[in-house]
Amino acid sequence: MSRIFGEIRQVAYITDDMDRTLAFLSETAGIGPWFVARDVTLKDVTYRGTTCDLRIGAALANSGALQIEVIQQHNDVPSMYTEFTDRNGFGLIPQHYSAWPTAYDATLRRALDAGFEVIQEGRSAYGPLSYLQHPETPDFYMELTELTAERKSIFDQVRDAADGWDGSDPVREGWPTPKV
Q1: CA-CA distance, 157 to 145, in Å (whole number)?
Q2: Record's Gene3D superfamilies (predicted)?
């Protein structure tokens, strides 16, 4: 467990082909089922001080307690995703790790005090999120996502679906509806 961020709950990857990546992860690696939101516009995202509207697709699945996220950016605005792929290309290279604190502001303050910088931040329908980078290791991105009741419900349902998954229905359109 991180003394700054708490429990690391997720690892994320960037893809240029969501269907190909999910097929590999479900059919070859046996991870799933995947819940996919194919076209999400995140409004008022700030990336390195510039506001932009970011369009992405995002898929979630669990392997045990670890959630795996696959992201595909659909528009060409600069973002932490394009920054990463410009440097590293696409592939199953971890792009960021995520912690889900309930004490979001306090966790963010600890990270800033440790020298991390917010490089991208925004808000989804379920609450705030920030992506952090440390100047000593620019390839390490950390996401903080406030664990609101709605997010917890979604993430619990994704985890529960993976528990004992038999390989059927590997890609499910949409994320679970929060039960709050």
Answers
A1: 17
A2: 2,3-Dihydroxybiphenyl 1,2-Dioxygenase, domain 1 (3.10.180.10)
d(CA 146, CA 126): 8
Q: Where are the domains of the chain?
A: 8-164
CA distance 36 to 47: 24
CATH number of this structure's domain 8-164: 3.10.180.10
Both tokens of 84, joined, read: 């990463």
Structure tokens given for 75: 């528009």
Query: DSSP characters for 48-63?
Result: TTEEEEEEEEEEEEEE
- Which of 92, 39, 102 shows the shortest CA–CA distance to 68? 92
The phi, psi pair for 32, rounded to 5°, reads 165, -175
Nearest to 133 by CA among 112, 113, 119, 114: 119
The dihedrals phi and psi of 106, each to the nearest 5 degrees, come to: -65, -40
Q: What is the pTM of this model?
A: 0.95
